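Q: Sequence in, structure out?
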Amino acid sequence: MTIHFNRIDPIDTVQILHHGAVNGVTGSCHELCINGNTGLLIDCGLFQGAETAGRTSAEQLEIEFEINHLCALLVTHCHIDHVGRIPYLLAAGFNQPIYATRATAALLPIVIKDALKVGVTKNKRLIELYLKKLEQLLVPIDYGQWFDLPVTNALTDDISPDHLRFNKAKAKFKPAGHILGSAYIEIELGDALITHTKLTGQRLSKQNNHRVVFSGDLGASYTPLLASPKSPYRADTLVIESTYGDKNHQSRKLRTQNLKKVIEKAVSDKGVVLIPAFSIGRTQELLYELEQIIHQQRKIQSKSTNSASSEHAKMWDQIEIIVDSPLAAKFTEQYIEFKQLWDSEAKKKLHQNRHPLDFEQLYTVNSHQEHLATIDYLAKRNKPAIIIAASGMCSGGRIMNYLKQFISITTADIIFVGYQAHGTPGRDIQTYGPHGGYVFLEEVKKYVKAGVHTISGYSAHADQDNLINFVKRMHHKPKHIRIVHGDDEAKQALAEKYRGLLPNADVEIGKS
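A: Exactly. Output:
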């Protein structure tokens, strides 16, 4: 797809192709065409929810684009909707460097191993072969460090009359604040050859460098654990996500109050609270916030002379917090390993000898047998508990067994703290559950009698104000903005905001 600017100069363009994340929020995969011989891939994610409709599992995973000219894959972060097709890219013959931040490089093999076991094969030898190949290609890069990309020079007869073509490229990862290791990517394209056919006939000329920024998934302001992303100094072309392009989140203080209030109400009848959450990012943020609530309640309990307040605070000491996800446990270990990437508030807690991701009331469920035993234990007892389990959109994983057990029980509650894509069970529960509707869980019809709650402020995605400020705070603002990774309403709303902010820029919605 060609990018055109609303300017007199029609040749100041770059070519970007989208192989996912244009009809929704999953399957992120974008290709920057550097010249006729060289392309660069940014992410290679799995499709989920409504974006899989009408396609078999094999068709969803196929690499349907040409890969022989690709010089590298750059990974923004390791959520499955950004990296889930990497094994299939390798199987298709991709043999070029895979660049990622150091934390993402540490997490990526864990994610890919789990994705292979769940969706492809249980064959340990085949899984090890994939992981060995990934390890050979993976190149960890520090934040803020420019690195050269292996560009094959363009031939004169390959020069396009419509696009800028370049013979040099370098890239840099900048913190995105979405999950551990997440980054937005700055790509500097240089040594450009352009044909001026639309102005003066066939004439080659040199042009200044062109800066392209791919946002990946940007984090929300004041997300626990990680610092908020800072805008790049410059972007000529910006490809940006729009998950919450039409909404703003609750403040962090309000969302913590809401979480506390919802949980207190939910456990007042000694029921279970189910929180579907992605293993990376959301789980760790929830643990961080829950530890903070427990810490504050213990302080109240130690100082209070009011017996009612003391009893109320004591309730939090009795709530078991269960993380039923071996994957989440592994990621939590990596969060602790990379604690130098935490924000100043989180580091301060460590200095106070607090352990926001590994505290006394926290229990981790590992084996499948433990998982089934935990469900049975919770179903038979009369004591409150909070269960955090994947997947975050209720489209698979251990949360499904909890939902099947408790979704039709009135004393249970379900709390959604993240985005629920169209076509996922999570979106159906969120939409129809509060009205006594039903949902199909692995083809089993279940009426929703549990309480259903949504706390928007816990999304790891930037909201509309964050997305606007990301552009507003650039010193040299983009001439072109391509909006991806969002529902239609979110993309349209964000596009209108950007057009108001930058009336001379070309703002468009990405298409495949």
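The CA atoms of residues 114 and 327 lie 8 Å apart.
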